[in-house]
Amino acid sequence: MFSAQGYDALRHSLVLVRRSDRGVLRLDGADRATWLQGLVTNDVLSLQPGHRAYNAYLTPQGRMITDLWVVATEDALLLDVPAPLAASLAERLDALIFAEDAHVSDVSAVVPCVHLLGPAARVAALPTPVLPGGGVLLPDHQYGVPGLVAYGPLDALLADNGLDDLTSALEVDLDTLDVVRIEAGVPRFLVDMTEDTIPLEAGIEDRAISFTKGCYVGQEIIVRVTTRGGGRVARKLVGLTLDVPGGPASAAPAAKTPIQSGDRAIGHITSAAWSPALSAHIALGYVHRDFVEPGTAVEVASADGPVRAVVHVLPFVPPSS
Q1: How far is the C-alpha of 291 from the C-alpha of 236, rounded, in Å?
Q2: Fewer CB atoms inside 10 Å of the end CB: C or N, the chain?
Q3: Global pTM?
Q4: Radius of gyration over every alpha carbon of the chain, rounded to an integer in angstroms
């Protein structure tokens, strides 16, 4: 349940979020990086221990199987994936290993993912980002606020980096984080991105795709769209501000709520929330490419009739400096 106190702490001090929505796979073996390099969209071959890269894993038709963070430790790669997909992804990936020295296992039960978010999580440097024997602590600014993400024993990772004072952070739930995620314009797989999504439609290409690395599954489609098609896709994920009557007491539109322009159906909502920062209902959703310009007026269906909405530049809330 959304917490106003937790939201305020996230924006102004510090919170802890246990990422039960995330699963962790472990990729071992001498060929782990070269093998994975041929599957995912970003450059993971050059990752050094204590660093990570955001990626997509695609079908040959360029549609998403999942998004994921690839995290380098001293002796393995950790794959941070949506929790509901962790077990099936581990089996799917392991089945693609033939003569390579690599092995995939689902370690979600023993390697928790935890976020520390807020201005108090701003650190200049991490002296020990990787613990001997496992555990990684990394900067994470994807939600527009200073943050740290831990894979493994949080207390030990904080202690080894001289950050023991962060252990007293207020704990908040995923509903509170989700409001900040939407304000940051960050699409979530299984919510704003699905197996029908091409990364270019979701606007994640700048951080998820390397256009200079070697081949990967689905690359031909991505290159064809970006080079021959000028990056034009039939639909795009956009931000919307909505004139929902009743303010924060009113329910935000549900996922899959239609978006219209007059009598024309042009898309649908994927995520929506009341934004304390904007004092308005906001949403992420896909619209036809003719309606993606900020300031474009559209309508969102509701039981009481169409609700006026305006395409808004993402992110809704600028990142903290």
Answers
A1: 9
A2: C
A3: 0.96
A4: 20
